[in-house]
Specification:
- This protein is of the alpha+beta class.
- It has 7 helices and 12 strands.
- The strands form 4 sheets. Strands 6-7-8-9 form a 4-stranded antiparallel β-sheet, with helices on one face. Strands 1-4-5 form a 3-stranded parallel β-sheet, with helices on both faces. The chain has a 3-stranded antiparallel β-sheet with strand order 10-12-11.
- It is elongated.
- The relative contact order is 0.12.
């Protein structure tokens, strides 16, 4: 079985985003960040590629954080190679999961394949960055999403982002939610991040 190795998140993202991988093994301790951010971004882009996290962090809350963020399995260091191989084989045996055609929150629907956000018969077009922000917020189910997570989902690791880029995108999204007559709105939890709520 062939494998590609990427030492940094910045190098890995464009390859895992566009590559046809059967499984991805991600180390949390990478030189340019936490490998879990890569998994979060893959899930925000509705990728169902199985992901195995490797980490030296063996605390229960770290494992829960990893699994809730989209990892399929979690292996703490040090580990036996036989166990590593067995876990990879188990992930490869899983049947593929079809991504839903639409994501919903309240009366609002996201249609990623078409690039639209809709409410009833009204719809607006969302550019890629705005779609990724909304997907992250919808997937959180009303829980607060950190500002850095939204920026990562929208613009990735390699793009230079101005300090107010997220604020501008959120302003546009609020206007678009109003335009389609949705009761959903974006709330700001100061110092924490953003979440969806219904009026």
């Amino acid at each position: 079985m062939a494998a590609d190795v990427f030492p940094r998140l910045e190098a890995a993202w464009p390859e895992v985003r566009d590559g046809q991988y059967q499984v991805i093994v991600v180390d949390r301790g990478l030189p340019d960040g936490d490998g879990l951010d890569l998994v979060r971004r893959l899930r925000a882009a509705h990728s169902s590629i199985p992901c195995l996290m490797l980490t030296a962090r063996d605390a229960l809350h770290d494992r829960i954080d990893g699994l809730e963020s989209g990892a399929d399995d979690y292996l703490a260091k040090p580990f036996e190679m036989d166990e590593f191989v067995a876990r990879i084989r188990a992930l490869l045996r899983r049947p593929p999961i079809s991504a839903p055609a639409a994501f919903t929150y309240g009366d609002m629907r996201l249609l990623p394949e078409q690039g639209h956000m809709a409410c009833g018969d009204e719809l607006v077009t969302l550019p890629s960055a705005e779609m990724q922000i909304m997907l992250n917020l919808v997937r959180s189910g009303g829980k607060t999403v950190r500002r850095t997570s939204l920026e990562l989902a929208a613009w990735g690791l390699a793009e230079a982002v101005t300090p107010n880029a997220l604020d501008v995108a959120l302003h546009r999204l609020r206007k678009k939610l109003q335009a389609i007559g949705s009761q959903v709105h974006i709330v700001n939890s100061r110092g924490l991040g953003y979440a969806l709520a219904e009026k």
